[in-house]
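Posting for a labmate who doesn't have an account.
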Amino acid sequence: MKNLGYYNGNFGELDTLMVPFNDRVHFFGDGVYDATYSHNYKIYALDDHIDRFYNSAGLLDINIKETKDEMKQLLSDMVKKVDTGDLFVYWQATRGTQIRNHSFDPKIQANIWIVLKPATIKDPYAKMKVITMDDTRFLHCNIKTLNLLPSVMASQKAESMGCQETILHRDGVVTECAHSNVSILKDGKFITAPTDHYILPGITRMHMIKMCKKLLIPVDETKFTLDELLSADEIIVSSAGQLAIGVSEIDGKKVGGKAPKLLKKIQDALLDEFKAETE
């Protein structure tokens, strides 16, 4: 198959699958998701993504009948059914199927969706142009919920301005991007916002922290401002699909480029890990 979808045990190409009208996702965006990439039919950082997925579901009291091991096995089996082993691997759990009502039956079982489509990670050594916007999202950004409309609008604004991402801030304090995390390098130190309820605990962000510690690069999980962002030696946008890309321009102003060797050291380590897990 060129692509593959899954809904509660039913398999098919993405344009052939149908889902129940009363799936709560249609009315409320009531669900959580996670995503990563596969290479050579091996899914990168699957354990970490599954842990975050079940944590998000638990924070919203979504009842997933499948165990973590069963979900990992299902995803691993599915990637082998597609023509290429280089895939975007996406899965979500919606709260379940129920006649529309804001409150829900706590015993309702989640519906599991999976989407596989051909894709490769972006070149982590490419540079990125970004814009900044006020972070107007709700206060559960740490949960990978399906309520993504603010991020959709922020991403569309960036694209309309010829940029690839939007960095969000609350009263001048940087949080994260529309669909990525953002960190900085300053004076030889890796600085990234703490994982409170304003940012998603990114898997690639977590791996960067581990890599920095392994490489003896000091790590500081602390908040930083827009002014500190603009004056940073390097700005790093990170996600599963691009690993760690440096930023060259913010709101039309040239930034970064002051610590290219240190940035490449981190990028090399992440790419080597990706290859080691998926070759």
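Reply:
Got it, the structure tokens are right above this. The chain has seven helices and 15 strands.
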